[in-house]
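Students often ask why inverse folding is considered easier than folding. One informal answer: many sequences map to the same fold, so there is more than one right answer. In these notes we will look at a single instance of the problem. The structure comes first.
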C-alpha cells in the first residue's frame, strides 16, 4: 500500500493562479474606475471596490485554507465568483442608468478583450489607465467622456466575465479533487490506518 506523503497537502501558491492575477487587475481597475466616474459619497463606489477586493481576498484565503480543508477552499472560491457576479451587475447598471450601449458578448470589441492572455495583462492595465485618465474631458456633455465610460465599463464587464469563466473551471477542478481525495478528516483516517497497518507488519515475526 502506498504511504501518504503528508497529512498537510501542498497548499497556497495562489500567486500563480490566473484567477488571482486577473482578479487583481479587476480590483485595481475598478478602484480607478470608481474614483473617476462615481462620486465617493455614493454607496455604489464603496460596494464596487469592496466586491472587487473580495474577489481577490477569497482566492487567497481559499488557497491557504486548502492546507486543512478542501471544503473551505471550495466554498471561498465560490464566494470569489459570487463577488465578481455582483460586480458585473454594478457595471451593467452603470451603463444602463446612463443609457450607454452594452456590448454583445460576441461583438468584435468583446472578443478583442477576451483574447488577451495573462501575459498581456500589462497592456490591459495601460488601456484602463487611459480610459480613466484625469486628462480626459470633464464635461458631463462630452461625447469623448461618454465614449470612455462606455468602453471602460464594457471592458471591465468582459474581464469580469472572463474571470467568472475561469473561476467556474477552477471550482470544477476543486470538486473533482475533493471527490477523489476527500477532506482533511478522510486524509487523517487514511494516514492513521496506514500507520497502524505498517506497525502491525513490523511487529510480525519473520
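Output (designed amino acids):
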Amino acid at each position: 500500500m502506498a504511504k501518504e506523503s503528508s497529512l498537510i497537502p501542498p497548499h497556497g501558491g495562489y500567486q500563480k493562479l490566473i484567477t488571482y492575477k486577473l482578479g487583481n487587475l479587476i480590483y485595481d481597475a475598478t478602484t480607478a474606475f470608481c474614483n473617476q466616474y462615481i462620486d465617493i459619497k455614493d454607496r455604489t463606489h464603496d460596494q464596487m471596490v469592496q466586491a472587487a477586493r473580495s474577489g481577490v481576498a477569497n482566492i487567497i484565503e481559499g488557497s491557504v485554507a486548502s492546507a486543512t480543508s478542501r471544503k473551505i477552499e471550495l466554498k471561498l472560491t465560490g464566494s470569489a465568483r459570487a463577488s465578481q457576479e455582483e460586480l458585473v451587475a454594478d457595471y451593467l447598471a452603470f451603463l444602463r442608468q446612463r443609457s450607454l450601449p452594452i456590448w454583445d458578448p460576441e461583438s468584435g470589441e468583446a472578443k478583442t478583450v477576451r483574447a488577451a492572455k495573462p501575459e498581456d495583462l500589462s497592456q490591459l492595465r495601460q488601456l484602463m489607465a487611459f480610459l480613466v485618465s484625469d486628462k480626459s474631458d470633464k464635461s458631463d456633455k462630452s461625447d469623448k467622456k461618454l465614449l470612455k465610460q462606455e468602453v471602460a465599463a464594457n471592458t471591465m464587464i468582459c474581464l469580469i466575465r472572463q474571470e467568472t469563466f475561469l473561476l467556474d473551471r477552477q471550482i470544477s477542478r476543486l470538486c473533482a479533487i475533493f471527490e477523489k481525495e476527500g477532506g482533511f478528516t478522510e486524509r487523517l483516517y487514511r494516514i492513521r490506518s496506514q500507520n497502524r497497518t505498517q506497525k502491525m507488519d513490523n511487529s510480525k515475526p519473520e
